[in-house]
Amino acid sequence: MRIAIASDHAATDLKTQLRDWLIEEGHEVADLGPGPGESVDYPDYGYKLAAVVADGTAERGIALCGSGIGISISVNRNAACRCALVSEPLSAALAREHNDANCIAIGARLTGIEMAKACVTAFIQTEFADSQPGGTGRHQRRVDKLSDPK
């Protein structure tokens, strides 16, 4: 899977650990920055992540900041992105299954590496319910309204 990952300065260590682990797992990973020691503004990196997910360069995105809140808000400014803030695997799986989330956000100050890996695994392995045989369309109808609230 093609995955983009970005963070702010509070989450560069978690970003590096997740990036390296995802590569070991066989994924193609685009690290959008920043590098260690740079003080940055999380919206800039949220917007970068959203752009590559929206244009199809990456299939999924992982956004990281201290709490996960700020960067998730910036990713969600792009109408093509559905970024869910997650802190455990069930919320990551449900974000995919019910909301067709194409990005997740994790707070580096709140979530350790093993839990972050569990969240990412659930996010990657779970399919959107309405893309599966027997899907009823009820989730797709709701997801469509997320990008077009009319």
Automatic annotation (TrEMBL):
Active site per UniProt: C65, H98
Protein residues bound to D-ribulose 5-phosphate: D8, H9, G66, S67, G68, I69, G70, N99, R109, R138, R142
Alphabetical keyword list: Isomerase
A GO biological-process term: carbohydrate metabolic process
Start and end residues of each stretch annotated as Disordered: 130-150
Gene3D superfamilies in the cross-refs: Sugar-phosphate isomerase, RpiB/LacA/LacB
Membrane-traversing stretches: none
Source organism superkingdom: Bacteria
Pfam families named among the record's database cross-references: LacAB_rpiB
Example of a GO MF term: intramolecular oxidoreductase activity, interconverting aldoses and ketoses
Family designation: Belongs to the LacAB/RpiB family.
PANTHER family membership: DNA DAMAGE-REPAIR_TOLERATION PROTEIN DRT102, RIBOSE-5-PHOSPHATE ISOMERASE B
NCBIfam families, A to Z: PRK05571.1, rpiB_lacA_lacB
Protein name: RpiB/LacA/LacB family sugar-phosphate isomerase
Organism: Pontixanthobacter rizhaonensis
